[in-house]
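Weekly structure sync, notes
Attendees: PL (lead), two postdocs, one rotation student
Agenda item 3: pending single-chain targets
PL asked that the sequence for the first pending target be pasted directly into the notes so everyone works from the same version. It is reproduced below exactly as submitted, 141 residues in total.
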Amino acid sequence: MQIDKLKQQHVDILRRITALRELTHAGVAGNAKAIAEGIIGMSAVIKLHLAVEDQALYPALQRGGNADLARLGRQYQDEMGPLAQAYDAFARRWNTAQRLHEDAEGFRADANNVLRRLHERMQHENREFYPRVEAQEEALA
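Predicted structure, written out during the meeting:
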């Protein structure tokens, strides 16, 4: 399975996390509308990304004939469940400017936790998982 689109989505999501970080550092209250819009936009990309992984990537790995890679794919999918739930709760909580205005420090704490975990996860996939998937594709080519 070609994973170029998944890798590009990682770039997009990481860029969006950086933009949210910059807006937060500049002031949550003053940037509440842009932060909320950024969260909504990023959520759409994340939902699409997770759907492609769940519906295409992981099933392809299960059918691919490489038991180690299939096992690794299951591990990544299982590990992503709690993080996806944490992100979903984060996005639902902070998707309006009003909520951001009401609890800027709560947003900062939540963002530092959830977005840091999301960032670390994607970096791990970029360094460890996707190269193995690509190596398998090349071996089969």
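Discussion points:
- The chain has one domain: 4-140.
- The radius of gyration is 17 Å.
Action: rotation student to compare against the earlier draft before next sync.
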